[in-house]
Design a protein that fits this description.
The chain is globular and about 60 Å long. The protein is an alpha/beta fold. The strands form two sheets. An eight-stranded parallel β-barrel has the order 1-2-3-4-7-8-9-11, surrounded by eight helices. It has a two-stranded antiparallel sheet with strand order 5-6. It has helices spanning 17-34, 55-65, 83-96, 111-116, 124-140, 178-187, 199-215, 237-260, 280-283, 289-300, 318-336; strands at residues 2-7, 38-41, 70-77, 101-106, 145-148, 153-157, 171-174, 190-193, 225-233, 285-287, 306-310.
């Protein structure tokens, strides 16, 4: 299995932003040293839910502080970005990292983020599709490109630099819908599955993806899936749950509040990637190293080879997160490499 670290750099009440960034960067660099396969940063705006407003800028910094780990966005909210600026910034990170960038993309779900940028959340799917079409076109064209769309227009643009990976970094889409899975299968994109699902629901998503791959004429077992999972590892199951359960519940509650935040004329946000369809004990990977290895083995049996672990759970202390990282590096990673 491949194991990644997923991070949002949350900013709980009473904490200092500089301290939170310093801790997050130390956690990310230690994950690289311990042998994690990837680091994924999510993008958020205007709240304590996450203070990584520019994930590509932070990944550029991490490109200089890490040696081998792949660097991913999970996700970049395309409707909130001018696609040309995004193309240039992403390509810059890909160049600086020597081709280690993975581009996770999504349409967003928090109403407050769209209001803050003056973008109608009802337009998010159309904006996403147009931005993605622009990215694919400018990265696969040899010369300047012109575009006259509904949301963006430009003439004779040749974004520079070009990506290190040609024609562009791998795309990963945050989706679990039949339509999204079909698009990923048809275009050979990876799939980012949400963390709040039971194994039964996840198994159904994997089955639909395999069917979509077969329908696209691809190997049903040849797709790429990264499954997110809230994780905390301690010497015993009891200690892991005692340390992580309340911080994770606080995090989930705040995420749901942001999703539901509305104003006059604004629709409630869509399903959050943190929405649960099961009890925490059916979704979160909290426990001893042996317990977490066993749970990862169950995930592997579904056909999923990649899992990104969400360790930075709201108010969970930095020391507890670092301890969890060390246990994962010493006792979990070696055990799951052969799964």
């Amino acid at each position: 299995m491949q194991i990644g670290l997923f991070h949002s750099v949350q900013w709980p009440e009473g904490s200092d932003q500089r301290d939170r960034y310093d801790q997050a960067l130390r956690q990310a660099c230690r994950a690289d040293e311990l042998g994690f396969d990837s680091l994924w940063l999510t993008e958020h705006h205007f709240s304590r839910h996450g203070i990584v407003s520019d994930s590509l800028a932070v990944l550029a910094h991490l490109a200089a502080r890490t040696d081998r780990v792949r660097l991913g966005t999970a996700v970049s909210v395309l409707p909130l970005h001018h696609p040309l600026r995004f193309a240039e910034t992403a390509a810059t990170v890909d160049q600086l990292s020597g081709g280690r960038l993975d581009l996770g993309i999504g349409s967003g779900y928090q109403p407050g983020e769209f209001r803050g940028f003056g973008v109608d959340i009802a337009e998010k799917h159309e904006r996403f599709a147009e931005a993605l079409a622009v990215l694919e076109r400018v990265w696969t064209s040899e010369g300047p490109v012109s575009h006259a769309g509904r949301y963006w227009s430009f003439e004779d643009a040749a974004p520079q630099p070009r990506p290190f990976q040609r024609p562009h970094p791998p795309f990963w889409m945050a989706t679990a819908s039949p339509e999204g899975l079909a698009a990923c299968a048809a275009k050979d994109w990876g799939v980012l599955l949400p963390q709040g699902t039971s194994l039964t629901v996840t198994a159904g998503q994997v089955k639909r993806y395999a069917e979509a791959l077969a329908g696209a004429g691809a190997d049903p077992d040849g797709g790429r899936v990264y499954l997110a999972r809230a994780t905390h590892v301690a010497p015993t199951d009891e200690q892991a749950w005692a340390e992580a359960e309340d911080p994770y519940k606080d995090f989930l509650g705040y995420a749901d509040k942001l999703r539901r935040a509305t104003s006059a004329g604004a629709a409630e946000g869509g399903r959050s990637p943190f929405d649960l369809d099961a009890d925490l004990r059916d979704s979160a990977l909290f426990g001893s190293p042996d317990t977490v290895v066993s749970r990862l083995r169950d995930i592997r049996e579904l056909g999923i080879e990649r899992v990104m672990l969400f360790l930075h759970l709201g108010g969970l202390p930095h020391e507890a997160i670092m301890s969890s990282l060390e246990l994962i590096g010493r006792k979990v990673l070696p055990a799951v490499r052969e799964l």
